[in-house]
């Protein structure tokens, strides 16, 4: 059996987690296997594809390259924590409306990366969205729908944030 | 009766998909998300012959497996070996991964694979592959018709490509216990279980959750592999990541079934990214030889089409590895899709050369039709050019299919197709001066062009034609290309799916060769369209994936090994090395070496769906991909006048083709030429040591000349004699249990220990802090650090303060033995008695543990030292000390500020910065004077110069040094990596004032700060960015896909961690590539501070050649002022093999399993 393992405490989707976790465990393994979350996906283990993206203290991060112990004490948000069915985050909502998925495996990363961008820059334009998503790979070629979805979310969030137009 | 189309209410209207909300919410949707109670995690270890699927070595190559190599990993439940099938099962996934990496497996030599690396090799291999010729069409007399002089003969080569699913394949398998309890076999003997397996009562014995395309075929495969009957096996299909053909989904299902049989629990097996890339059956290469000729009346006299398709049986891998099926070369009749061209010819012959695979392959979107149509549609464009007819017009004239003609006309209309009869007529864009009647689209009608168009003179660049307007100057040329195909699939003569036509608008940079597809207009006739939203989505996906395949995608294979120049004499490579995959195997293991289209490159896509409500619905999944590559190739021809016949159309290929053209008129001959602008090779002005008035000399150790050295050696000899006489006494052991030190003193000691980074060297990988056992690799041999905890037998437990103080000041152990200066007592001697006392108090307060004690509770590891003669003679150190050591504590320098003196005390005392950062002489003593802190190699890393000798783009100043030491990075310098990361981590314990003092002192060895250091940084970044466009190639694409998401100049994604521009990083500017190579190999797992972020290790994912290519590119791009590093492949091999800080332990990288990832 596994001998005593180093203790780890962090916050996931607003809930505290405390447990014994091997040093080798990645944040992705912790989230998927110890916490049973499906949102973050294993894609490459090298931070190249973005399928595993989560937020660490609100910043997009590749969970596959982060040792779980490396984010001790920090706040992790996964797709599940962004919004649940019936209470989707505006980015998830826009992805549903724009039908921005083919197989959907990359969807988690697209949504999480876009949500982090729009939290910082609610009025991001298409060029900004393209460059922000340039490290997220999609094999199915859903890029057109994804760009449409993020632009839709940006239009809504940007409108909510924008100062009143001068009259 | 069927409902009449006009009565449809839902059919023909866009409908949303029902699966998307669950996927957006992270609910169970993919096989990857399948979990069962008690589920274990499996990983496989593949043999070295990645890409092979036939040959007697398959299943016969395993030599040995050493299970003890993973005995240290907790929770291992099974190791399964069946011939060449090797797998492990662990309770936790990270331990299964670790076991996959560390299980020592050795493989016998095997015959190797055909050499597919380099120009022409794939085509040669196809031509050499035994084939059976099938004649599909033979109408008229092609041979005679093609004897004329005007015959065009062309060869087209399609590359090996990946399915490239974003999610590597995954499966879960569970064996049902048999009645009577004894459920699973032992996993080692497939045949033995067969007999009992047959006697059951209709119960499922094996259940497998898989992302397979073919559950029925998989079920039969599993039954065969496991000696079951089909009805014993239940395959539960779940969604997997899109793969557009057959990837590793079936393979991993069989892997899971084998591993689950060995344990009494369900097992989930996840292939690694590397395994998926290496082993997925590839989309095969294909070779098309075409000949054709025009007839005198402008028709097509004859067309001869020969296509060679190395086919795609791809038996499920476990069947081959276990030798359940024989690994035979088998040919399948699958190269014939859309082999018949759509046009009318007077004489037509179509032949397919059926052949066995060369590399393990399976169908990939547009199976054989896409390459065949690439050839058809490229060739028809050439014929049109030869005939002097607009290519769309030319097709329409020879196309008998009325439905196709309607599609082509509508598509050309929508795209605003501009008539052309040769290349470069519109290469500079759609000039407002061009008469609108020459355009089809809103302003024209292609039907009106009944006869041949008047051939306009090509008006290439230059002359009176205005150059391309805008900031891009004349480098960018535009082109428009057309292609059409109807996908004919299934067994010859097959069935037709949707009709599709493309108009692609491209821009080509004539200086760099880059091709950008700006816009694609696709006309699509899928018959009755049930859900037009779904069809539009499929067309978008087809366009993007096809553009990606046309521009970027190609599997690379390992070249035959070249002799590596290690040192002076070239040494031929005998055994495979860890970083050198065997010749001929797949060398593409991650996205950097197999880039796919990303968001910045996505074209505008417009879809025209032909309304066909009364017609049969046709497949829309693949059709839109089929004409795409030819449309892009034809557009590149239109822009540049060059025909590309071997995708992918990379910048290198475009440039090579352009440079073989005569230069365009009126451009001074420069248009088609490309020369790499030579980076400024001027040597940097030699940096000067500190201008600040000899302060360094005050504090640096005394410099002693060669006469003194010789004298010292003599003294050392005397010291040897003295040492044999036992001239240094032991200090009596003490024993006490409760040292009487105050909490404040202990706390101060803790901070001082952090400042001294004691734990960095005195903690082994996986060992308890301060327990020692870490190997220090010095030029004189390897020594292991000692135990600083107060353990009586192996640590400081019996040391009095006096003994501790003597060790720190004089380098002499309690028992009187000399210590080696790898323990930096030469620096620690400068520490005050007060501080030594606090340090001692702190160590005595630690819980005592045995030397080399392990974090995981395993047995302590304390290997012996291994020093070369004469360095293994400790008494010689007496002479050494006489030469090089000054044991007096630090004395403040008059005339310097208190802060500077505090900094000097910390830097030269406990901080012992010079121990790493000063070069050492032949006897291992730190050099002084201008060499003080001037940079050195330590533990496999370069500790860069901290003085004016820095290679950094921006010199160090106090602010940057403070930021670096405090936060682990500074905006104008790189990030603390390697051992320095741990140093900075330790410095976190120091008060701010001490860190500032260190920065103040260190800054005094640098020139006075620049008036505007940020301007220098900006200049360096801009200088690097300016040359970027001239550095295209596979290495550039690798950097963009493997590195650029995190490492960019502010124009990419924001991700966790600091992103300091690489142009400012000393890893790129140094004269040595060691730190860069080490960082690529081993990544950043323990960053100095939480600001810095993490980096993956590429050791398992990139081979030496790839890392060398990447490092060479990064040097040229980010340090264009510096000369290229020499012999990079050999340097990568050296660094990979060398031990060093952060490198995995030797057992983790057995040299005999280079491809066992």
UniProtKB/TrEMBL annotation, chain A:
Q: Which Pfam families match?
A: Fer2 (PF00111), Fer2_2 (PF01799)
This protein is called: Ferredoxin
| Occurrences of domain 2Fe-2S ferredoxin-type (ranges) | 6-82
Q: Which domain of life is it from?
A: Bacteria
Cited InterPro entries: 2Fe-2S-bd, 2Fe-2S-bd_dom_sf, 2Fe-2S_ferredoxin-like_sf, 2Fe-2S_ferredoxin-type, 2Fe2S_fd_BS, Beta-grasp_dom_sf, Diverse_Oxidoreductases
Q: Which UniProt keywords apply?
A: 2Fe-2S, Iron, Iron-sulfur, Metal-binding, Oxidoreductase
Q: Which molecular-function annotations from GO does this UniProt entry contain?
A: 2 iron, 2 sulfur cluster binding; metal ion binding; oxidoreductase activity
């Amino acid at each position: 059996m596994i001998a005593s393992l180093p203790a780890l405490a962090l916050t996931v989707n607003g809930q505290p987690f405390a447990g014994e976790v091997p040093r080798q465990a990645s944040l992705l393994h912790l989230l998927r296997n110890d916490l049973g979350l499906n949102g973050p996906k294993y894609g490459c283990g090298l931070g190249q594809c973005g399928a595993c993206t989560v937020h660490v203290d609100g910043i997009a991060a590749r969970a596959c390259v982060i040792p779980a112990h490396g984010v001790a004490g920090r706040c992790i948000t996964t797709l599940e924590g962004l919004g649940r069915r019936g209470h989707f985050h505006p980015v998830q909502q826009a992805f549903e409306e724009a039908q921005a998925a083919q197989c959907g495996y990359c969807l988690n990363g697209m949504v999480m990366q876009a949500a982090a961008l729009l939290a910082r820059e609610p009025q991001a334009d298409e060029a900004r969205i393209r460059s922000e998503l340039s490290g997220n790979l999609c094999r199915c070629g859903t890029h057109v729908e994804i760009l449409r979805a993020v632009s839709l979310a940006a239009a809504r969030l940007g409108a909510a944030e924008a100062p009143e137009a001068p009259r | 009766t069927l409902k009449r189309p006009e009565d449809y209410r839902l059919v023909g209207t866009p409908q949303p998909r029902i699966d998307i909300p669950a996927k957006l919410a992270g609910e169970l949707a993919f096989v990857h998300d399948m979990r069962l109670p008690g589920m274990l995690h499996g990983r496989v270890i593949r043999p070295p012959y990645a890409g092979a699927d036939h040959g007697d070595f398959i299943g016969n190559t395993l030599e040995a497996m050493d299970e003890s190599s993973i005995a240290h990993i907790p929770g291992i439940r099974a190791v399964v070996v069946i011939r060449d099938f090797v797998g492990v099962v662990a309770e936790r996934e990270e331990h299964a991964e670790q076991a996959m990496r560390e299980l020592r497996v050795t493989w016998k030599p095997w015959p190797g694979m055909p050499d597919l690396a380099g120009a022409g090799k794939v085509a040669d291999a196809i031509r050499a592959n035994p084939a059976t010729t099938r004649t599909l069409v033979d109408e008229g007399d092609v041979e005679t018709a093609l004897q004329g002089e005007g015959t065009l003969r062309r060869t087209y080569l399609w590359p090996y490509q990946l399915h490239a699913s974003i999610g590597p394949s995954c499966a879960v398998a569970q064996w049902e216990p048999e009645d009577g309890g004894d459920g699973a076999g032992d996993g080692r003997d497939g045949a033995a279980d067969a007999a009992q397996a047959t006697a059951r009562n209709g119960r499922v014995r094996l259940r497998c959750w898989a992302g397979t395309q073919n559950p029925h075929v998989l079920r039969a495969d599993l039954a065969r592999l496991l000696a079951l009957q089909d009805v014993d096996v239940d395959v539960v299909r779940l969604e997997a990541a899109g793969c557009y053909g057959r990837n590793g989904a079936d393979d991993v299902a069989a892997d899971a079934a084998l591993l689950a049989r060995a344990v009494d629990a369900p097992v989930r097996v996840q292939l690694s990214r590397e395994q998926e890339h290496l082993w997925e059956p590839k989309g095969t290469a294909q070779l098309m030889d075409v000949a054709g000729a025009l007839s005198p009346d402008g028709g097509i006299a004859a067309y001869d089409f020969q296509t060679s398709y190395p086919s795609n049986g791809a038996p499920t891998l476990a069947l081959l590895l276990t030798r359940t099926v024989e690994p035979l070369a088998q040919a399948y009749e699958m190269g014939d899709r859309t082999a018949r061209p759509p046009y009318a010819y007077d004489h037509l012959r179509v032949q397919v050369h059926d052949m066995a695979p060369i590399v393990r392959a399976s169908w990939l979107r547009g199976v054989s039709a896409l390459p065949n149509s690439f050839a058809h549609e490229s060739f028809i464009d050439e014929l049109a050019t030869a005939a002097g007819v607009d290519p769309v017009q030319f097709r329409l004239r020879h196309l008998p299919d009325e439905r196709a003609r309607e599609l082509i006309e509508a598509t050309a209309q929508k795209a605003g197709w501009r008539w052309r009869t040769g290349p470069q007529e519109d290469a500079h864009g759609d000039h407002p001066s061009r008469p609108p009647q020459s355009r089809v689209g809103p302003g024209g009608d292609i039907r009106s062009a009944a006869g041949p168009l008047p051939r306009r003179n090509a008006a290439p660049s230059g002359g009176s034609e205005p150059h391309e307007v805008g900031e891009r100057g004349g480098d960018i040329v535009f082109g428009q290309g057309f292609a059409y195909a109807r996908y004919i699939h299934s067994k010859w003569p097959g069935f037709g799916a949707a009709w599709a036509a493309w108009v692609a608008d491209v821009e080509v940079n004539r200086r760099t060769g880059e091709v950008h597809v700006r816009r694609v207009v696709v006309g699509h006739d899928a018959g009755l369209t049930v859900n037009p939203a779904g069809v539009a989505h499929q067309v978008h996906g087809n366009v993007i994936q096809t553009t990606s395949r046309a521009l970027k995608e190609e599997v690379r294979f390992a070249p035959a090994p070249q002799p590596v120049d290690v040192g002076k004499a070239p040494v031929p490579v005998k055994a495979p090395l860890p970083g050198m995959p065997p010749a001929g195997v797949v060398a593409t293991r991650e996205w950097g070496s197999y880039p796919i289209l990303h968001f910045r490159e996505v074209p505008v896509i417009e879809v025209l769906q032909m309304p066909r409500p009364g017609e049969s619905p046709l497949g829309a999944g693949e059709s839109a991909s089929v004409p795409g590559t030819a449309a892009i190739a034809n557009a590149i021809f239109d822009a540049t006048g060059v025909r590309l016949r071997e995708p992918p159309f990379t910048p290198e290929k475009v440039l090579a083709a352009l440079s073989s053209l005569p230069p365009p008129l009126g451009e001074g001959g420069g248009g088609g030429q490309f020369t790499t602008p030579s980076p400024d090779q001027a040597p940097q002005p030699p940096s000067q040591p500190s201008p600040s008035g000899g302060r360094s000399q005050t504090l640096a150790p005394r410099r002693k000349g060669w006469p003194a050295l010789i004298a010292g050696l003599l003294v050392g000899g005397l010291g040897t004699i003295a040492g044999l006489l036992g001239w240094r006494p032991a200090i009596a052991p003490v024993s006490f249990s409760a040292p009487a030190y105050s909490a404040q003193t202990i706390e101060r000691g803790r901070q001082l220990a952090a400042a001294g980074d004691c734990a960095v060297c005195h903690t082994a990988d996986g060992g308890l802090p301060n327990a020692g056992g870490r190997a220090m690799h010095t030029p004189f041999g390897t020594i292991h650090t000692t135990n600083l905890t107060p353990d009586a037998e192996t640590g400081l437990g019996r040391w009095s303060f006096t003994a501790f103080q003597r060790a720190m000041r004089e380098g002499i152990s309690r028992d009187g033995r000399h210590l080696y200066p790898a323990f930096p007592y030469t620096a620690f001697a400068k520490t005050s008695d007060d501080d030594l006392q606090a340090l001692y108090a702190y160590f005595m307060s630690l819980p005592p543990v045995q030397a080399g004690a392990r974090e995981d509770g395993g047995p302590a590891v304390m290997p012996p030292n291994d020093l070369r003669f004469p360095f293994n003679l400790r008494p010689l150190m007496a002479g050494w000390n006489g030469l090089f050591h000054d044991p007096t504590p630090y004395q403040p320098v008059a005339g310097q500020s208190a802060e500077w003196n505090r900094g000097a005390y910390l830097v030269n005392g406990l901080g012992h910065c010079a121990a790493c950062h000063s070069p050492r002489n032949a006897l291992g003593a730190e050099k002084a004077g201008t060499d003080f802190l001037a940079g050195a190699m330590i533990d496999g890393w370069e500790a860069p110069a901290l003085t004016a000798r820095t290679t950094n783009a921006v010199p160090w100043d106090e602010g940057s040094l403070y930021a670096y030491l405090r936060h682990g990075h500074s905006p104008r310098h790189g990030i603390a990596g390697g051992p320095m990361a741990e140093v900075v981590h330790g410095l976190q314990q120091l008060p701010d004032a001490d860190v500032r003092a260190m920065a103040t002192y260190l800054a005094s060895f640098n020139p006075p700060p620049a008036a505007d250091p940020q301007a220098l940084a900006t200049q360096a970044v801009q200088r690097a960015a300016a040359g970027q466009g001239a550095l295209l190639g596979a290495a550039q694409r690798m950097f963009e896909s493997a590195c650029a998401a995190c490492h960019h100049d502010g124009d990419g994604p924001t991700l966790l961690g600091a992103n300091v521009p690489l142009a400012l990083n000393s890893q790129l500017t140094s004269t040595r590539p060691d730190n860069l190579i080490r960082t690529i190999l081993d990544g950043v797992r323990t960053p100095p501070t939480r600001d810095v972020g993490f980096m993956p290790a590429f050791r398992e994912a990139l081979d030496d050649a790839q890392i060398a290519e990447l490092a060479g590119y990064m040097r040229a791009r980010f340090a264009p002022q510096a000369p290229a590093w020499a012999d990079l492949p050999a340097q990568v091999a050296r660094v990979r093999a060398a031990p060093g800080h952060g490198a995995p332990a030797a057992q983790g990288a057995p040299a005999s399993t280079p491809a066992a990832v």
